[in-house]
Design goal:
mainly beta; Pectate Lyase C-like; 32-stranded mixed sheet; two-stranded antiparallel ribbon; 34 strands; globular
């Protein structure tokens, strides 16, 4: 059994020793404003070429920081270069174009595989020591993309997520020692922040939001895809899909996918979750997930605290996953949901795979919420070592529906010891 690197609630970044910033980082070099490259912050002019020119120029000069000043700067996809950081000043808005042609298709990682699809507004590849910081906003101008998706879905109910092109806000891949800090992610057309194959990433004090009165499909807050040693702290989530999603590959041959190493050593701490479909969700594309700790967090709206999606077509190993010191304060929501996830699955003629869910704990949970939830695997799923302890909650639906053995220690619902039903 794997041991957590997050002892007693303290993050021990032992894996970062080999990725400390080297000499001559971008932060020690030039600082250049996009204002020097003929941009217009009027919320209408397309500035893609000018912003990319600023990035390229800083990269050519050995690295530095590109600054987005106060104003609303419309842009299509831009691509950061190694050694180039991004700083958004207070009042700065980098606003995604509503014209999908400003996001020309490229080979990209999406939903557990690679294909020619839409890049993000801000993209970075092989950018060790990358910093995207400040107090400004990345605005995805998502409404026309959401409306197009729902229109297509009404016309053809079989429409899938990737059938309608919608840009992410930020995609970072193949990078070590990454920090995204302070900025506001707003109205993404698709996923907000997608980290793929990164080692040693910190996402801190970031707000992820979409309108509360609209259906904004696939607006995940933070997607941690095939990454190791990631910390998410002090962030706020109000989205229309999973707030934080742990992702990898999918399908009956997923364990053979060399592009999707295990997701390991993930720490989520001191975050607030106002709205979403999962606080920290395993899947839907995921194979091996180990050592995830979610702690000292507050849920203030409808959500699912612990959501583990079990695909019937993918061998999955969810192990050493811990939710602790959680405050619930909402009229609805679910504490735990370990259930089959059958969306878009394909066995490709193979027999159903075997999956494992092991060493899952929920501890020190308090407050008021909707329901306790359910634990149910696919045929052949081995679910074991689930512990619920030090729980004192007020729920509308008190029973935990489960076909697996669960260990309860000092677990109280509505003033009574927890009831278990199948």
């Amino acid at each position: 059994m794997h041991r957590s690197r997050f002892a007693a609630g303290i993050f021990v970044p032992i894996a970062l020793a080999f990725i400390l910033p080297a000499q001559g980082l971008a932060t020690e070099n030039a600082t250049v404003s996009i204002s020097d490259f003929g941009v217009a912050g009027d919320g209408q002019t397309l500035n893609t070429k000018a912003i990319q020119l600023a990035i390229d120029r800083v990269a050519e000069q050995g690295g530095g920081t590109v600054v987005i000043p106060q104003g609303v700067f419309v842009s299509g996809a831009v691509f950061l270069k190694p050694g180039v950081n991004l700083w958004l000043e207070e009042g700065a808005v980098l606003k995604g174009s509503m014209n999908i042609e400003d996001f020309p298709k490229t080979r990209t990682r999406i939903e557990g595989h690679f294909e020619d699809w839409i890049p993000a507004l801000v993209n970075a590849s092989d950018c060790d020591h990358l910093r995207i910081e400040g107090s400004g906003t990345l605005d995805g101008s998502g409404q026309p993309f959401w409306e197009l998706f729902w229109a297509r879905r009404r016309a053809d109910p079989s429409t899938k997520n990737l059938d309608v092109a919608r840009p992410r806000l930020c995609f970072i891949q193949n990078s070590k020692d990454v920090k995204v800090s302070g900025i506001h992610f707003k109205d993404s057309g698709f996923w907000n922040l997608h980290l793929y194959h990164c080692n040693g990433a910190v996402v801190e004090n970031v707000r992820f939001e979409v309108p509360r009165d609209k259906r904004c499909p696939s607006t995940d807050g933070t997607d941690i895809d095939s990454c190791q040693n990631v910390t998410v702290r002090g962030c706020f989530y109000s989205v229309n899909d999973d707030c934080i999603a742990i992702k990898g590959s999918k399908g009956p041959f997923a364990l053979e996918d060399k592009d999707s190493p295990p997701v390991e050593h993930i720490h989520v701490v001191d975050c607030t979750f106002e709205r979403g479909q999962g606080v920290v969700t395993m899947g839907s594309e995921a194979t091996v997930v180990r050592d995830v700790v979610v702690e000292q967090c507050k849920i203030t709206g409808p959500n699912i605290l612990a959501r583990l999606k079990l695909r019937p077509d993918t061998p999955q190993d969810y192990e050493d996953i811990h939710y602790r010191d959680i405050t619930l304060d909402a009229a609805s929501g679910t504490i735990i949901q370990v259930n089959p996830w059958r969306q878009y699955f394909d066995l490709m003629g193979q027999p159903p795979p075997k999956s494992v869910v092991r060493n899952i704990t929920l501890s020190d949970i308090k407050g008021k919420y909707g329901s306790f939830g359910s634990i149910q695997g696919n045929p052949g799923t081995d679910i074991s070592d689930i512990t619920i302890e030090n729980v004192d909650v007020t729920l509308k639906e008190a029973k935990l529906k489960t076909s697996s053995t669960v260990s309860f220690k000092n677990a109280v619902v509505n003033g009574e010891p927890i009831a278990v039903g199948k």
